[in-house]
Structure of CRM domain-containing protein:
Amino acid sequence: MLSGKQKRFLRSMANGLQPIFQVGKGGVNENMVTQIAEALEVRELIKVSILQNCDENKDDVARALATGAKAQVVQVIGSVIVLYKESKENKEIKLP
């Protein structure tokens, strides 16, 4: 579990990132969760945008992605989700 200080640190790091995945009409599927898990292993911190045609609630989408990819939800702001997962092999982010 991330502390408030760690979440603030990660939010500041995510500020300059662009979303690399989009959740659309199909919602969250197994293939997307697998790709997000792989991206998190490489990058540790990613943004996922939710398109307007997505039928699911953004908090449900965030929870489904985090659970599936075994990651932490750092922030849900507007239609963007920030996810963090400590990398096993490519650890670059040092949490405070």
